[in-house]
Amino acid sequence: MGKVYDAIDERWREWIAQQHMFFVSTAPAQGGHVNCSPKGMDTFRVLGPREVAYLDFVGSGAETVAHLRENGRITLMFCAFDGPPKIFRIHGRGEAVEPGDPSFAALAREFPQPERARSIIRVEALRISDSCGYGVPLMTYTGERTQMDGWAERQGPEGLRKYQLENNLESLDGLPALHAKTIR
């Protein structure tokens, strides 16, 4: 039986820190494409009892950023792939904090390698809940993939900037995503 919580307490903070992967879901307000993205690589932090953030790296799209700009709705989900079965969800209001935003530098200090982030997604938790996770398969973690770092290094700073200008300024549905002036 699932339970709703008032806050992310120390027990949940520790459990979240042990998970190697989480999922992010957003959607535009009117129709369009629902987005669900897997995330990992030690990019998630609990900032307070009802506040979390994660590093948003350069990717093939910028759906989350665009959806948050439009309506702010976001759901984060963690699943236990080993140990006792458990699913943990944070439903909230999010924002993409881009480099150049006054709060970016303070948020960046919470993470390893924040210089690689195109933004930091900050979320105010409106609903915090768990559920059983009985349907989640048992899986073994063997490590992080290295392709993202290698790709970024091969692009170099100017190549990454060019890629983002070509691919991350709007969503699949044409919603504005990253601000061109903040792309570094």
The overall average pLDDT, rounded, is: 95
CATH topology: Pnp Oxidase, Chain A
* Structural class label: alpha+beta
Order of helices and strands: EHEEEEHEEHEH
Total strand count, please?
8
Give the domain tally: 1
Helix count from the secondary structure assignment: 4
Helix residue percentage: 10-25%
CATH superfamily (homologous) name: Electron Transport, Fmn-binding Protein, Chain A
Largest sheet geometry = 8 strands, antiparallel
Tell me the radius of gyration.
16 Å
Detail the poorly predicted runs.
none
Give the strand content.
25-35%
CATH class: Mainly Beta
- The outline comes out as globular
List the helices and strands and how they pair.
Blueprint: E1 3-5, H1 10-18, E2 22-26, E3 35-39, E4 44-48, E5 51-57, H2 63-70, E6 73-79, E7 87-97, H3 104-108, E8 117-131, H4 147-167
Which keywords apply here?
184 residues, single chain, eight-stranded antiparallel beta sheet, alpha+beta, Pnp Oxidase, Chain A
Task: Provide a descriptive summary of the structure in words.
The chain has 184 residues and is α+β, with helices and mostly antiparallel strands. It has one domain: Electron Transport, Fmn-binding Protein, Chain A (Pnp Oxidase, Chain A). Helix content is 23%, strand content 32%. The chain is built from four helices and eight strands; from the N terminus they run βαββββαββαβα. It has helices at residues 10-18, 63-70, 104-108, 147-167; strands at 3-5, 22-26, 35-39, 44-48, 51-57, 73-79, 87-97, 117-131. Strands 1, 2, 3, 4, 5, 6, 7 and 8 form an eight-stranded antiparallel β-sheet that branches. Strand 4 and strand 5 (51-57) form a beta hairpin. The radius of gyration is 16 Å and the shape is globular. The termini are far apart.
